[in-house]
Design a protein that fits this description.
alpha+beta; globular; binds 2,5-dioxopentanoic acid; binds magnesium ion; FAH
């Protein structure tokens, strides 16, 4: 099922969509305000998130889709967002072109151990509709559309859409600058919802597309499929959780395969729409930070 977290008059609410009907789970139980609340209660009750939500819909108000779109905020309060890199061949090629040390991208693409890096805290993660950031000290910036894995206590509880906004010029100058290329104000967006694994047939068979609009014109429009990914979600989770006590809620972005070619440069005023089949569309404007 599809779960949205809403911010309504300063209060959090949790909704679930089943088929074409959306229910306000917070109206059924005021203690359920976030996806994390629901996941925690389901775990204590030894039931699945979807089964618990289904039971609650019997006492829940129905809300319309427009209301959900208008109030949707980040779909899960992940304490940490991490990201995998060079998980698609095109990303490996693009990094080779940009980098002063291209061999390391080739090596990690072929290696057993994937590249996994820290991406964002809640303070750096923006909600659907809000502006992602491009750094003022960066010359070349891109959005990176990625499938997001939602984890609770290191177990996969859902999938979302993510944008690993990045400075290509800072990363290209020296790989040791990766944290500055990746982690800064408004560097990440996730949303619009979390979809539980029961509703995602195969996370490795999902169409993913991105459009970028500038001054009312579409200047980028491309699509790919997560079947192009050389890593599995389980493999990424396994490396992420090794010898690493992870927070109760975390998101791992699985890497990008839609790379706008140079001289494309993301700019303040652009609008980025990323759609992942069966999950939804994550839309953000762009600002300079
Ligand atoms: O190694 C740099 C980052 C790669 C990345 O973010 C991606 O492939 O999506
Ligand atoms: Mg990325």
């Amino acid at each position: 099922m599809h779960y949205h977290q809403l911010a309504v008059s300063g209060e959090r609410r949790l909704t679930v969509s089943r088929g074409s009907t959306t229910y306000d789970l917070t109206s059924a139980d005021a203690d359920l305000r976030t996806f994390g609340d629901l996941a925690r209660v389901a775990s204590i009750a030894r039931t699945s998130i979807d089964r618990l939500a289904s039971e609650l819909t019997e006492d829940a108000d129905v809300v319309d889709e427009g209301f959900v779109d208008q109030h949707a905020t980040v779909p899960v309060d992940a304490e940490e967002v991490w990201a995998a890199g060079v998980t698609y061949q095109i990303s490996e090629q693009a990094r080779e072109e940009e980098s002063s040390m291209p061999d390391m991208y080739l090596d990690v693409y072929d290696a057993d151990r994937p590249e996994i890096f820290f991406k964002a805290t809640p303070s750096r993660t923006v909600e659907p509709g809000d502006a992602i950031g491009v750094r003022e000290d960066s010359e070349w910036d891109v959005p990176e559309p990625e499938l997001g894995i939602v984890l609770r206590r290191g177990e996969i509880v859902g999938y979302t859409v993510g944008n690993d906004v990045s400075s290509r010029s800072i990363e290209g100058e020296n790989p040791l600058y990766l944290p500055q290329a990746k982690v800064y104000d408004r560097c990440c967006s996730i949303g619009p919802c979390v979809v539980t694994p029961e509703d995602v047939d195969d996370p490795h068979e999902l169409e993913m597309s991105m459009t970028i609009e500038r001054d009312g014109e579409i200047i980028y429009d491309d699509a790919t499929n997560t079947s192009e990914m050389v890593r599995s979600c389980d493999e990424l989770v396994s490396y992420f959780t090794r010898h690493n006590t992870v927070p109760e809620l975390a998101v791992i972005l699985t890497g990008t395969s839609l790379v706008p070619e140079q001289p494309f440069d993301l700019q303040a005023g652009d609008r980025v729409d990323i759609t992942v089949e069966g999950i939804g569309t994550l839309s953000n404007s762009v600002t300079t930070v």
